[in-house]
Amino acid sequence: MEEWNKDFNNISIQYDGGVVRIKADDALIKFLELPSHGSYLLSQHILKTYEKIFKKTIKISIHSLAIEIIAHVFVDTILENISEFSDSISHEKLKPVIDTLEHLREHTRIIDCGESSLDNNRFIWDSLVPFHTIIYGIAEMASTKDENQIEV
Predict the structure, then answer these.
(1) 129 within a domain of the structure (yes/no)
(2) Could you give the maximum distance between any two Cα atoms of the chain, in Å?
(3) Number of structural domains found in the chain
């Protein structure tokens, strides 16, 4: 297994046969918050680097990979903003939601992106590819949310 590579905007990426791993950390989140199609640009970089390392393409489409990255990062965004609900909802009622999201977050700190033969969730991301334009638009809106709120 390769070491963590941070050549692209200090985002931690690890390349293995048929699998790419990305740390869902501050570097990734900050990059995706930039006003661009960050997940697409990151996916483009990952696919090119994988091909350089292994001398073959990984069997993951650029849009499938980009959508998977977006989906994992949104889980973290929900967790980071859940404190807003704690004022209006009792801790007792909120605790099961937080516990579930924390459990999910534990499984999303490292985003495992594998070929369908190695990743039984690949079909989920592949099935969303026809909607990539909409998903990118939603991600773009989410990345500029704080900026828009400040202007109000």
Answers:
(1) yes
(2) 55
(3) 1
- Please indicate, yes or no, if residue 89 is contained in any of the structural domains: no
- Spatial distance between the Cα atoms of 41 and 11, rounded to a whole number of angstroms: 12
Residue 103 lies inside a defined structural domain of this protein: no
137 Cβ contact partners less than 8 Å away, ≥ 6 residues apart: none
Is residue 100 in a domain?
no
pLDDT digits (tens, 9 = 90+) for 45-96: 999 999 999 999 999 999 999 998 988 887 656 666 665 655 666 667 667 7
Q: Could you tell me the residue range of the domain that residue 43 belongs to?
A: 13-74+110-144
- Cα 86 to Cα 98: distance, rounded to the nearest angstrom: 10
Contact (CB, 8 A) for 123 and 94: no
Write out the two tokens for 67.
Answer: 């959508």
The DSSP string of 58-92 is -S--HHHHHHHHHHHHHHHHHHHHGGGGTTTS-HH
pTM of the model: 0.78
